[in-house]
Specification:
The protein is built from 12 helices and 2 strands, in the order ααααββαααααααα. Strand 1 (128-131) and strand 2 form a beta hairpin. It has helices at 3-31, 38-55, 60-83, 91-113, 138-160, 162-172, 174-179, 184-206, 219-230, 235-255, 260-275, 280-288; strands spanning 128-131, 134-137. The chain is globular, with a radius of gyration of 19 Å. It has one domain (3-288): ABC transporter involved in vitamin B12 uptake, BtuC, CATH 1.10.3470. It has a two-stranded antiparallel sheet with strand order 1-2. The chain has 289 residues and is an all-alpha fold. Residues 283-289 have low confidence and may be disordered.
Length: 289
């Protein structure tokens, strides 16, 4: 495959990893817990999109909006019903809970939608874009553009809205935020809602280039590596880590012996942890202080 096509495919795949990693980081910054079911939330979002768009015949853009709202409500409910009751318990308990949640979501998806891969039509399916000598899938272009737009919206939300600023304050010091009158528990649930909505967008964007099936949620493991590479407390780092993993994976598949493609994310994580244990952006932030 041409280098330019490898790079574009890697960037598109990296954007998916980056969006899932954003969910990891959002929840970690707000609650200091790691949601290992983030990839499975992406999978459920993709299946719900299949239901809305392919089964119910919704227009693509209306279906996308409906999926985001549905998954955001589900994320909010997950925090209220499952996470809030064990607040204050050891972090290990939360980790086990989210891992178990992933198993449950995969089982439910298998029962409801079956284990056979499915897909649904999009405005970009099967269309190509010629850029110089390279022929690029519009599906990959849509992933890249969609990721940039979503990241821009999140930046504006956290920087300029009252709710976003309150979320940042709560993530820095929950106790101080509570004494300042900020509803920390409600904000935590809202973060889960945003994280689930971001996962839904990742699932919808990924569906045209990878068939939707219950095991697709295991991509969350590579996204976790991307979050670690970028620095687990950094939103820009999550996206950067996703791009590094995605491009590295494609280059490994194109130029290295068989087997390196699937392990490249973890090899990159090991290298980064050896050189910069806090991750790329975390190291930069410490230098600025």
């Amino acid at each position: 495959m041409d280098l330019a096509q490898l790079l574009v495919t890697g960037i598109a795949q990296g954007c998916i990893y980056g969006l899932i990693a954003l969910g990891f980081v959002l929840i970690y910054k707000a609650t200091e817990t790691v949601n290992f079911a983030q990839g499975d939330l992406m999978m459920v979002g993709a299946f719900i999109a299949f239901t809305f768009i392919a089964s119910l015949g919704m227009p693509y853009w209306l279906g996308l909006a409906a999926v985001i709202v549905t998954m955001a409500l589900a994320g909010y409910a997950l925090d209220v019903v499952l996470l809030r009751p064990i607040s204050g318990q050891p972090q290990f308990a939360v980790v086990i809970l989210t891992i178990s949640l992933g198993f449950v979501l995969r089982a439910i998806a298998g029962v409801v939608w079956g284990h056979n891969p499915v897909s649904f039509p999009t405005p970009f399916s099967g269309k190509m874009l010629a850029v110089g000598n390279a022929v690029i899938s519009q599906e990959n272009v849509a992933i890249i553009v969609g990721t940039l737009l979503l990241c821009g919206l999140l930046f504006v939300f956290f920087r300029y809205t009252r709710l976003g600023v309150a979320m940042q304050a709560a993530s820095q010091n929950q106790l101080a935020a509570y004494y300042m009158g900020i509803p920390v528990k409600r904000l935590s649930s809202t973060i889960w809602a945003i994280s689930a909505g971001v996962a839904a967008v990742a699932g919808v964007l990924m569906a045209p280039v990878a068939l939707v099936e219950p095991q697709m949620g295991f991509l969350g493991i590579k996204a976790f590596a991307a979050a670690v590479i970028g620095g687990f407390g950094s939103l820009p780092g999550a996206l950067l880590g996703g791009l590094i993993v995605g491009v590295g994976e494609q280059l490994a598949g194109g130029y290295l012996p068989q087997g390196f493609k699937e392990t490249s994310a973890y090899l990159l994580m090991l290298v980064v942890l050896t050189v910069r244990p806090g991750g790329l952006f975390a190291q930069i932030q410490r230098k600025k202080v």
